[in-house]
Amino acid sequence: MVSEKICLATIESLYGRRVVLTQRFEAQDADNSTSRTSSDDNALTEPQLVRPLLTHYELADVEVAIRWLQLGGYISRVQFGLGGPWAHKLSDKGVQVAEDGRFSDEERALFYRIDPYAIFLAHQFTAADAGLERAIREHLTATGYAVVDGRVDGLEPFRHAILRKIATSRFFLCLLTHRSELAEGGFVSSVWLYQEIGAAVASGKSPLLLVESGMDPHYAGELQKTYEYIGIERECFVDVLPEVVRRFNVDLERDAIPVPNGSPAGTV
Asked: CA–CA separation, 188 vs 197, rounded Å?
């Protein structure tokens, strides 16, 4: 996968820099040898560009990013003289990205097979949970994420629509709240939520569960062994939401994907 973050870091490394290269012309008589100094803006030699990036990223990932930028016309190779020294240089297109601090939406789509900021929120469609669902949606949206859920519009088959939404979202968040009380005590949630958790796992997601206190251990505690798990209390529910954002941001950072613009600094 080509990393948008590494591509941006590469462009930022070149922007505003000036490369100065000396080309030597050797003569049989050493006293008559000459040299010529050339320079160019928004450019660096390959060692000057790559070595600082290696303090943060793997060499293979940096090389892939440079190749992607070359194919996209963001950087080019400028050579000084025939067979002379060369450098990586930003094109006008690359300079524009550096000044904007981002790629165009059309170009960004080329980095991802799924939406990196989309979160599928599995929850019960009940009046009791409406406030919790609204608080999650508002908090995540304010920090730059997009939230989708199991609502289906139009005539698309219900199950197919949900599976498609889960598959095209990077994250899966489940609000696991009380549905029915067991005779022996404790609560279980909606069977639909457990099915959606299974669908998320099948599509390669790592579910994050928000589990209401009082859930029967068999229907919540056992899930904790496999999936990420945060316990919640309705009275102080909003207190856990910054931790939800932090975990999603950490996941993005691990794959060198920029965190959304609305996320607070220092969350990763």
From this structure: 14
Which residue range forms the structural domain that includes residue 127? Answer: 115-254
Contact, 45 vs 85, CB < 8 A? yes
Q: pTM for the complete prediction? A: 0.71
Residue-wise pLDDT tens digits, 160-174: 888 889 999 999 999
Who's near 75: CB < 8 A, 6+ residues apart? Answer: 10, 11, 14, 66, 69, 88, 89, 90, 91, 94
215 forms beta bridges with 187
Residues 14 and 84 in one domain: yes
Any domain includes 216: yes
Same domain? For 56 and 121 the reply is no
Within the chain, what is the greatest distance between any pair of CA atoms?
100
Per DSSP, 215 falls in state: B
Same domain for 127 and 236: yes
